[in-house]
Amino acid sequence: MSQLPVLSGKEIIQLLKSIGFSEVSCKGSHVKLKGFRDGEKRIVIVPLHDELAFGTLRSILRQAGLTVKDLRNLI
């Protein structure tokens, strides 16, 4: 099993923006991003926490259509 890096909400938003996602809205401490991945429209919700829990990070990756390997390549 691959180890996930410790990232903040702002860091993951910057990584998603670097692959074509764009910020759509912000409600409270959550940011909504939209983008296309593998020909599919994707909507990702990212909490603006200083440190994302591993389960939350996995959920964000799943929503974005990314794997842990993809994330490591972006970093």
Structural commentary:
- The protein has 75 residues and is an alpha+beta fold.
- The protein has a single domain, classed as Hypothetical protein (Metal Transport, Frataxin, Chain A, 2-Layer Sandwich).
- The protein is 37% helix and 29% strand.
- It is built from three helices and three strands, in the order H-E-E-E-H-H.
- Strands 1-2-3 form a three-stranded antiparallel beta sheet.
- A hairpin with a 2-residue loop joins strand 2 (30-37) and strand 3.
- 20% of the residues are buried.
Features:
single chain; alpha+beta; globular; three-stranded antiparallel beta sheet; 3 helices; 75 residues; 3 strands; Metal Transport, Frataxin, Chain A; 29% strand
- What's the pLDDT, averaged over the residues? 92
Strand content: 25-35%
CATH topology, by name, is Metal Transport, Frataxin, Chain A
**What is the general shape?**
globular
CATH architecture: 2-Layer Sandwich
Profile the largest sheet: 3 strands, antiparallel
Q: What structural class results from the helix and strand content?
A: alpha+beta
- Radius of gyration (CA) equals 11 Å
Number of self-contained structural domains: 1
Count the E strands. Answer: 3
Proportion of residues in helical segments: 25-40%
Q: How far from one another are the termini?
A: 18 Å
Q: Total number of helical segments?
A: 3
* CATH evolutionary superfamily: Hypothetical protein
CATH level-1 class? Alpha Beta
Along the chain, the helix and strand elements come as HEEEHH
Low-pLDDT segments: none
